[in-house]
Amino acid sequence: MKNLKLALTSILALASGLVANASVTTSGSALLKVPNIAVGDVSYLIIDETNTGFANLGSVNPNTSSFVAGTIYSGTSIAINSDSFGSNFTIAGTKTAASSFGSISVGAGYTISVGNGVDSGDNFAIIVFENSSTTAISGDTYRIYTDASWVVPADGTNWSFGPTAGAGVFQQLGTTATPAFTKTVASTTAVPEASTSAALAGVAVLGLAALRRRRA
Amino acid sequence: MSITQKLSKRGAILAASLVLGAAFTASSLSAQSVSTTPVGAVTTTVKANSDERAGIVLQRASLFTSKVSSVASGTITVSGTISSLGSQTKYVKFTSGAQLGQWFTLTASSSSTLTVAENLATLGVVANDTFEVRPFWTLATLLPAGGGLPVSTDPFSPASFVFFNDPSAVGINLSAPASYFYYAGDPDFPAGWVNSDGYVPADNAIINPDVSIIFRNGTSQNKSFVTVGEVPAVKTGITVVAKAAASQDNVIYNPYPAPIVLKNAGFLSNNAVRPSSDPFSPTDQLFVYNVGATGVNGAAAKVYFYYAGDPDFPAGWVDADGYVDASNATIPAGAAFILRKGSGSNSVVEWTPPLPYSL
């Protein structure tokens, strides 16, 4: 047992870059019955490290923006190639909109690692893509939701989302919620290499499938 | 995460007030019943709009007790015949020998053998060591029908939460990565415990005996629940992890239904707490939470460390608030605390405090 636990924690330590990671945990549903969100929509909780404002998030470039569900992009690592998200935003995690208890909601079971640019007091938002999942789809619409109460609290604390913001509770956004920003994944004008055409065709099929799912 | 990862080690619970065998004389204790297996009851109160951090100090009833006939790797052949142990997830806790007080998740069993993931032979388990097999507490067994904590009728705005800490989390100031609430039920979803991440049933969520729990009452009234179980009759060990590169928090608790006194709590054994030569930069520290605290996400109320001593100040426990002697300070029954290990080396040791009572 000793060895098992040591090995396990060692692996985790390596994964975290041997940095003592303080954390904040959120739970519940951040977005509940919010218009334009459908089952299967993929969302990302993103933290504004320098509080420059989510308007400063650049348009997602379909050539360079890929996301791995569950992966925490910390600091500049979010800038994949020339990803236009920029280096001041960190993705803390991802959730897929689901139907639970008869309502469509976006869960909020995130553990936000504090450090590596993420600090108490940083604002956070949730970005919901209509059709993109792990790869940005050209022309896809994504919406950015945030609230005045959505601020990274003191590390070591546990917060939930509820109808009324308060001690340990972030404001849950509901039927009247409107996105702070609505953006479109940038279109690409690049001519694909022949060798990549097949792959792109596959992506296109996936995109159509997603559209059919969404609009069904 | 597998059950083995999730349940890395040994165990026991907590309390705000206790009801135990007559052997206990503390004011928080009152008589219940005493037999060959002392049984007790613990009442935990979670104040209005507050968190209560605690561990579970009573054990579920033993399913099988015997001694080791032989051991090979992670499998022990027992003395006697094992009858059905049921389908619940269980652990083996040694009640004598080199692993006294340590628990191991049971991964397989037969009529004559018990198997765990660890190599018990390497850990020093030998023939004639005694042990017991117990089921883990789960949310549904610890808090049936909510147990007295507020029941949530709106799953999107739970009235209360139970937060599970993760013993394998790395770092300091760690939050609890899993949260649950008790749902009242509706025609489409049965009443029961629900994981608030994904809204999946969680009646069988297992409570890791190595870490404390956070009970959050989101209502304006104090709420209580009562735990009934067997009183630990032998020492209980709790895993303490340290990291080489950075400080590491261990979110643990007093595993007994009676207070422990710092100077008698065995922290220095195995270097669970290392003496600090610099009182202004302690090596290892204890952050002890108040029982009956008010508010959510509260901070620890007391910070202690063990000072190595110098010609002017004797070695001993020190209260970091005022640097006064804290050797006789106590950690209440089941009270949660953080043992923060300073950096220096990767290590996993067992803190196995002596029983603060006799049965």
3D architecture notes:
The complex is a heterodimer of chains A (216) and B (359). The longest helix of chain A has 22 residues. In chain A, the strands form three sheets. In chain A, strands 4-3-8-9-12 form a five-stranded antiparallel sheet, with no helix packed on it. Chain A has two helices and twelve strands. Chain B is an all-beta fold and 359 residues long. In chain B, 2% of the residues lie in helices and 34% in strands. Chain B has two helices and 25 strands. The interface between A and B is large, with 49 and 56 residues.
What's the order of the H and E elements of chain B?
HEEEEEEEEEHEEEEEEEEEEEEEEEE
Q: Give the biggest beta sheet of chain A.
A: 5 strands, antiparallel
What structural class do helix, strand and pairing data of chain B support? mainly beta
Poorly predicted sequence stretches spanning 5 or more consecutive residues of chain B: 1-35
Number of E-type strands of chain B: 25
Shape of chain A: globular
User: Approximately what portion of the residues of chain B adopt beta-strand conformation?
Assistant: 25-35%
For the termini of chain B, the CA-CA separation is: 38 Å
Distance between the termini of chain A: 51 Å
Specify the structural class of chain A. alpha+beta
Encode the helix/strand succession of chain A as letters.
HEEEEEEEEEEEEH
Annotation field: number of helices of chain A: 2
The 3D shape of chain B can be described as globular
Approximate helicity band of chain B: under 10%
